[in-house]
Amino acid sequence: MSDKYDVIVIGAGPGGYVAAIKAAQLGLKTACVESWTAEDGKSQVLGGTCLNVGCIPSKALLEVTHKYEEASHDYESMGILAKSVDIDVAKMMERKAGIVKQLTGGIAGLFKANGVTSIHGHGKLLNGRKVEVTDKDGKTKTYEAENVILASGSKPVEIPPAPFDGEYIVDSEGALEFTEVPKRLGVIGAGVIGLELGSVWARLGSEVTILEAQDNFLPVVDQQIAKDALKQFKKQGLNIITGARMTGAEVKRKLVNVSYEDSKGKQEAKFDKLIVAVGRRPYTDGLLAEDSGVSLDERGFIFVDDQCKTEAPGVWAVGDIVRGPMLAHKASEEGVMVAERIAGHKPQVNYDCIPNVIYTAPEVAWVGKTEEQLKAEGEEYNVGTFPFAANGRAMAANATGGLVKIIADAKTDRILGFHVVGPQASEIVAQGVIAMEFGSTAEDLALTCFAHPTLSESVHEAALAVAGGAIHVANRRKKK
Ligand code: FAD
Ligand code: AMP
Question: Total domain count for the chain?
Answer without folding.
Answer: 3
